[in-house]
Structures are given as structure tokens and as C-alpha cells.
Design brief:
This protein is mainly alpha-helical. 57% of the residues lie in helices and 3% in strands. It folds into 2 domains: 1-29; 31-122, Cytochrome c-like domain (Cytochrome Bc1 Complex, Chain D, domain 2, Orthogonal Bundle), CATH 1.10.760. A two-stranded antiparallel ribbon has the order 1-2. The structure holds heme C (HEC). The site of heme C has 20 residues, from helix 3, helix 4 and helix 5. Heme C is lined by residues 40, 42-43, 45-47, 54, 60, 62-63, 65, 73, 76-77, 85, 87, 89-90, 93, 105.
């Protein structure tokens, strides 16, 4: 039993350190649009379709991401992840992304133009 508790303390301490390192690092994460291209597969189903509306949790307009400002996209994703911005599906999606994923995806979408509707990369 003692050994069991000890292990948990060590894990808690380690994840505390990892959390600190991650937040200290967050400011200097640099997005890579090329890497982002490989990370948007799960976004395309909703965000890649012009005028698409989701049916969940109610009929809802899905915003176009291509051509939006990278800082805006990154802030939006962090806000969903933290729960500052509420939308169930986006919260689930954003929670699965690391800071680096968010930076890459933001760089990728920012490099597109809003009118590149048939862009296969979108
Ligand atoms: C199930 C459909 C769905 C999927 C999958 C999805 N999104 Fe969304 N997303 C939405 C909807 C609907 C909204 C609008 C929600 C709101 O108003 O808060 C949204 C909002 C956003 C916003 C805020 C846009 C704005 O103009 O404020 C960003 C950024 C975003 N999504 C990025 C992504 C990324 C990146 C992925 C993939 C990693 C993704 N989404 C996957 C449906 C989806």
C-alpha cells in the first residue's frame, strides 16, 4: 500500500512539472502550416464544407476557418479547450489538441484564403 501511494505522489509531481513546462513553453510555440495540414483531417468534415450546418447539438452554422487570422484561431481553440468558450463538439475536438497542434493548425488555416473553396487541403 505504501509503495502504491508513493508512486502516485511521484506521478503527481512529474505531471506538475510537465504542466509548468508546457505553460512556460506555450508562448513560444511556433506554428508550422505544413505540419498543420496533416492535423486537420478531423476538422474538414465540419469546417471544409461551404455553408455547412451541423445538426448537433442543434442546427448550427459552422464557421469557415480558411483565411482567418492565426492568433484568432489559436485563441478560439485554447478558449474551447479551457472551457472559456462553450460548444460541446469543439470543446471535445480542442481538448485533443496539444499547444503545438493548435499552433500548426492555426498557421495552416491562416495561410488559406476565404475564397479557396475547392482547395483540397482545406
Ligand atoms: C462536429 C463538427 C466540427 C468539427 C469536427 C470541428 N468543428 Fe470547429 N466548430 C464547429 C462549430 C459548429 C463551430 C461554431 C461553434 C461556436 O459558435 O462556438 C466551430 C468553431 C470553431 C472555431 C471558432 C471559429 C470562429 O470563427 O470563432 C475554430 C477555430 C474551430 N472550430 C476549429 C476547429 C478545428 C481546428 C477542428 C479540427 C481539429 C474543428 N474545429 C473541428 C464544428 C466543428
Amino acid at each position: 500500500m505504501k509503495k502504491f501511494v508513493g508512486k502516485h505522489v511521484v506521478i503527481a509531481a512529474l505531471s506538475g512539472i510537465a504542466g509548468l513546462a508546457a505553460s512556460a513553453h506555450a508562448a513560444d510555440v511556433v506554428g508550422n502550416a505544413k505540419a498543420g495540414q496533416g492535423k486537420v483531417a478531423m476538422c474538414i468534415g465540419c469546417h471544409g464544407i461551404p455553408d455547412y450546418r451541423t445538426a448537433y447539438p442543434e442546427v448550427y452554422r459552422v464557421p469557415i476557418l480558411g483565411g482567418q487570422n492565426a492568433a484568432y484561431l489559436s485563441n478560439a481553440l485554447h478558449a474551447y479547450k479551457k472551457g472559456d468558450r462553450h460548444f460541446d463538439t469543439m470543446r471535445a475536438v480542442a481538448s485533443s489538441l496539444s499547444d503545438q497542434d493548435i499552433a500548426d493548425i492555426a498557421a495552416y488555416y491562416a495561410a488559406q484564403t476565404p475564397t479557396s473553396k475547392n482547395n483540397p487541403d482545406k
